[in-house]
Amino acid sequence: MCALTEEEYTKVDSFKSAKQMCDTLAITYEGSLEVKRNKLSLLIRKYELFGMEENESIQTMFGRFQTIINELTFLGRTLLSQTKKFLVRF
Question: What Pfam families does this protein map onto (predicted)?
Fold first, then answer.
């Protein structure tokens, strides 16, 4: 409870169990299962359509690409073999 901000604490203050508190905070910061599915679909689409933008440096492009890969990994989706194929194209 000490690690919670005042706002977070007021959200979970009335709960009786640690599980209720944890579940509420997880939904607040990670989203519901439906939200996660939608994020995953959006990220996969971004990955599939990914390309270098006009006047973009390789460093900037790689940063955008790495962000997509990191977010996919966070949501439990790894695209290691596809990522290697993609990087070979560039």
Answer: Retrotran_gag_2
- Torsion angle defined by CA atoms of residues 71, 76, 90 and 56, in that order, rounded to the nearest 10 degrees: -10
Report the number of distinct structural domains present in the chain.
1
Answer yes or no: is 72 within a domain.
yes
d(CA 7, CA 21): 13
- Residue 41, both tokens: 């679909």
User: Is residue 1 in a domain?
Assistant: no
Average pLDDT of the chain is: 82
Instruction: Give me the domain span that covers residue 76.
Output: 33-89
Which residue from 42, 51, 48, 52 is spatially nearest to 75, judged by alpha carbons?
42
Residue pair 69/83 in contact by the 8 Å Cβ criterion: yes
pLDDT in tens, 58-72: 999 999 999 999 999
